[in-house]
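Curious: why these numbers?
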Amino acid sequence: MNEIKESPEHVIEFRLSKKKFLFNLIKLIPKMKKIRKKAEQILLEAEPPKLKVEAPTSEKVQEDLESICKVPHRRIGTEHAHEIEDFLVSKCKELGLESVKKEPVEVMNWGATNWKLRISTELEEIDVPCFYVLNTGFTSENGITAPLVYIGTGKKRILRK
């Protein structure tokens, strides 16, 4: 039996019995065979690659990763990120790949200089150690004030109450 449920987060969950799932899967076999035949035909008609690219060894890949990770961070749009982009372009060209290029993308890049989480009660204000989340929207200078709600473990049965 097919069952559709809507959860409190407005995510639709669809359940299918194992028998129905297998039946639907078996019905797809003829289509999959046709797709496979078409793919085989395309491969037979394709020209062999003009360029032979030798894959780097795992040791070389490890060495390159260690080199990339020496940079303090690689946040998009920063000088460090551009250095890594240039490094990757040069590595692709070393492998013999042609027409390697960087595509510019407009991004908003910011660095937080002030952040805090303060819980205010009638009796006191508690500053909670926290850290900002990169690449999120901005908060006004007034900050955000909202009620604090305890949701236990956050399981659906608790949230329904």
Observations:
- The chain has five helices and four strands.
- The mean pLDDT is 82.
- The two ends are 28 Å apart (CA to CA).
